[in-house]
Structures are given as C-alpha cells and as structure tokens.
Amino acid sequence: MSIPWWRDAVVYEIYVRSFADASGDGVGDLPGIRRRLPYLAELGVDAIWLTPFYPSPMNDGGYDVADYRDVDPLFGSLDDFSALVADAHAHGLRVIVDIVPNHSSSDHAWFQEALRGVGRDRYVFRDEPNNWQSTFSGPAWTQLDDGQWYLHLFAPSQPDFNWRNPVVHEEFLSILKFWLDLGVDGFRIDVAMGLYKAEGFPDVEDQSFMSVSPIWGQAEVHEVYREWRKVLDGYPGERMAVGEVWTDDPADLARYVRPDELHQSFNFAWLQAPWSPTAFRTVIDDTLATVPFATWVLSNHDVVRHRTRYGTEDPGAGLPRAKAALLTMLALPGSAYLYQGEELGLPEVTDIPDEDRQDPIFFQSKGTLPGRDGCRVPIPWSATGASHGFSPEGVKPWLPQPSVFADLSVEAQEGDEESTLAFYRRALARRRDLLKEIPYNLEWLDSPEGALFFTRGSLICAINCGLEPVRLPPHTSVTLASGPLKGDLLPPDTAVWLHAE
Ligand code: NOJ
C-alpha cells in the first residue's frame, strides 16, 4: 500500500479572520489567503486547514454556523473559495476545511424554526435542565419564553444538535458531499467527541475536563464517523478527516482512528505536556503505542501560544524552547499541525484592552477568563503600517497588534538567516528530504539526565530540557539545530537533528 499523503503531512492552520485581509474591512478573508499562498508554499507545508468561513453571526468567530453550504460575505464568496482551492492545489497545497457538527448558530434556519416550535427534535430540548455547565462558563441550558430549555455546550447562540435524530445524520452527509464536490481534501471535525449526550441527561459531579463522561465521548459517536468514512472513501484522491478530540485517555483517542473511522485525531497531550523530558517521552510512547497514525500539535486558535507557555517562568526561554519543541515534533513519526504565526515566533498577546476583546469566553465568564483573543491577533506581514500589512494601508485590524509585532513581521524576518522564519523554512525543507529515507518507527537511545535522544534510521534527534549542557550522541554530521551548539555539547533549551551512517 502506498503511503497516504496525510500520514506525514505538515498542516498549517489558518485562522481565517486573522491571516490576511484583502477586502479592507479589517478582517481576514479568502482572497487574502489566496494572495499569500506563495508564502505558504515557500514555507514548505503540505496542506492548509481553514477555520470556519461559513455565514455566521460571528459570536464564536465562525464556530457558530448559520449556513453550512455558503461563504460569509465577510470572507468572500463560493467563487472565491473555488478559486482558492484551485490555486492552493496549483501550489501543491491540500485544503482541509472545518466542519462543526456539534452545534449550529442560533441563526441557522433549523433553530429559527425550532424557536417557532417546529422541528425541535433536531436540537436538544427538555422541559427541565440538568446541572451541566457550558465550556465557556455558565449553565449549558437556556430557557425559552414557552418554558422549554435547549442545550448549548458552548455559547447560548450555539444550540447543540440532536444526533439521535437521523435527519441530522443525513444533513451532515450531504454537507460533507457539498464540500468534497468543491474539491476539498479533508475535514477538521470540531468537538468530534461531543455529538452524543448520555441518555437521560444525568447530572455530573465534575465537569472540569472534556473527557469520557456523561457529557462527552458517548460510544454512539463512532457510528457517525463510520458513516463519514464511507463517504470520504467514495471520493478519489485520499480525502481525509481529523478529529478535535479532547480526552486525557490515549486509549479513548485511539477509538476515533480505527480503520473505518477518522484518519487522524489531534494529539493535545503533546501540547499540554510541560517542559520535561519525562513528560515528552510519556506522551510520545503513549501515542505511538495506541494510534496507528500519530499527529502532533503545539499551538492552535484555542490555546496560549507555545512560545508564551514555555516562557511562563523565564520569558527569555520561551522562543528557544518553542524552536526546540518544533524541531523535536518534526522528527516524530506522523503528521504535524502548525498554527499561523508560530513560524514568526509570535507570542500570546496578553494586554488586549477589555473593550477590544471579542471571545465569548471573556464575556460569559464576566471577564474572569481572558479568553482566546491573545492567540488570534492578526498576522504582521510588514514591519510598519496601521495593520502591519494585514489589511490594506490605513485600515485598523479587528484586534489590535502589539508593537513587538513590527520586529516579528514577515518583512523583518525575510532574508535574515538567523530568523525564526528562516529556521522553520529550513526545518520543513530538511524534513521533506529526510522523509524519503527514514522509517516511520522511532527508537529511543540512552539519554543523559534532562535530555531525550531518539533515532529514525539515519536521523538522530536530541533535545535538552535540562539546566546543564549534555554531550551529543555519536553522529557523522549536524543537520540542523534550533540554537547554537557548543562544540560537541547540546546547550539547555536546544534541539538538534544529527545524521548517523
Ligand atoms: C473548538 C473550536 O476550536 C473553538 O474555537 C470553538 O469555540 C469550539 N470548538 C466550539 O465550536
């Protein structure tokens, strides 16, 4: 069997609102992405994942979909989408789109009908609520004027579908086909573990984590992905699906990627691991022992950017560690997901004024949680200008950019061989070459305290998470390092790829 394209793919997540604004309204859009495809091809990624661009009131940045078969005018049109897919393919980039099956927007035609008392069985309506809390804070139930309550595991404007109703299944099969017919190569499935809720809606004691519980991860959900897999397999060109599965149990994760279900699921354990060789090794071992096709991710539009996470105690350590983690991730078997701006070393923006914040988490928690706007600040393309080249000149972007973005902009880094951008380009180019010769499997090497060494054929990867330099393992040459080496020593917060005969 030939190796499917997605097995080792590097996928670049585009948070559409924040990537590039061509229309001049301060919000990113599809034509903006299209103009930047040469940048992505040069970066060396294999695919792009677009966050939702469907008609939406934007209460949750588009994860509140009002119409699953169109493009919001904010982002362009269906013609713009088709042009983007064609251009991406011409640049050798596959296109993955986001599908949001757990809930719609309250503006969706079905929910509008439900409000009028028609077809309420397409959503979760009850006469009494239970004690479930919304992931965004506050109760997960909202009462209508007629007394009934509807369920929303996220914002009140995101009513949950009732997947026990076959009509919902048929609708989503048809939506998948709509986008497959337009040429998409795959889907990222939002809240993939959430579609079914426990029969009887039992109260829960602890809802602190989206794990297997009465709320998330019901066994019936797997039947949905078996239906979807049949549809994907019916199309030519290895169409795929990756699930957003939050769980703290690797065995649970593995159930989503059985041969007749999803191709991949996100491995959030990697992103959640602290800066520790034992924590990294545990995640790597657990992953490779349980899933046939591994994935790795360090940042996305929902979490604090990893440069900032790794710099919590010492901000100066954030970037070196981020680069070392990236180099390690790119050496692991499987597919890697990057988040826009990490190739520039962007930090989380922590000082967005309250009046500029947009994330529903900030509002639903009454300002007690900052929300996710800090990782969604528009990309700085140029060193100067009102939006650092994100929008046409003179236009203010939808979230303010901090002054530090000037030196981190693409323009400031372009041509600088020492920049984070140049490092990402080198790492991705070398990885492509290496994949032609190295096996999928990884073998551990004896590692000094604080460090992790592993090998895949002629590649050795070494990362030093400790406080002291460690001696490099035997090798014939140095392929790429995330920071300066000291002779035969690997300094702290540094990773390296070595070549061995
Ligand atoms: C996960 C998405 O990544 C996040 O941005 C969104 O708020 C929730 N799902 C709800 O759709």
Describe this structure in words.
The chain has 501 residues and is of the alpha/beta class. 27% of the residues lie in helices and 14% in strands. It contains 15 helices and 18 strands. Strands 9-8-7-3-2-1-11-10 form an eight-stranded parallel beta sheet. A five-stranded antiparallel beta sheet has the order 12-13-14-18-16, with helices on one face. It has a three-stranded antiparallel beta sheet with strand order 4-6-5, with no helix packed on it. Helix 5 packs parallel to helix 6 and helix 11 (318-331) packs parallel to helix 15. The two termini are 28 Å apart. The model has no long low-confidence stretch (mean pLDDT 96). The structure holds 1-deoxynojirimycin. 1-deoxynojirimycin binds next to loops.
Give the topology, please:
Layout: E1 10-14, H1 30-35, H2 37-43, E2 47-50, H3 78-90, E3 94-99, H4 109-115, E4 125-126, E5 141-143, E6 149-151, H5 166-181, E7 186-189, H6 221-233, E8 240-243, H7 250-255, E9 264-265, H8 268-272, H9 277-290, E10 295-297, H10 306-309, H11 318-331, E11 335-339, H12 360-364, H13 405-408, H14 410-413, H15 420-435, E12 443-445, E13 451-456, E14 459-464, E15 470-471, E16 477-481, E17 489-490, E18 494-499
Helix pairs in contact: 5-6, 11-15
The protein binds 1-deoxynojirimycin.
The site of 1-deoxynojirimycin has 9 residues, from loops.
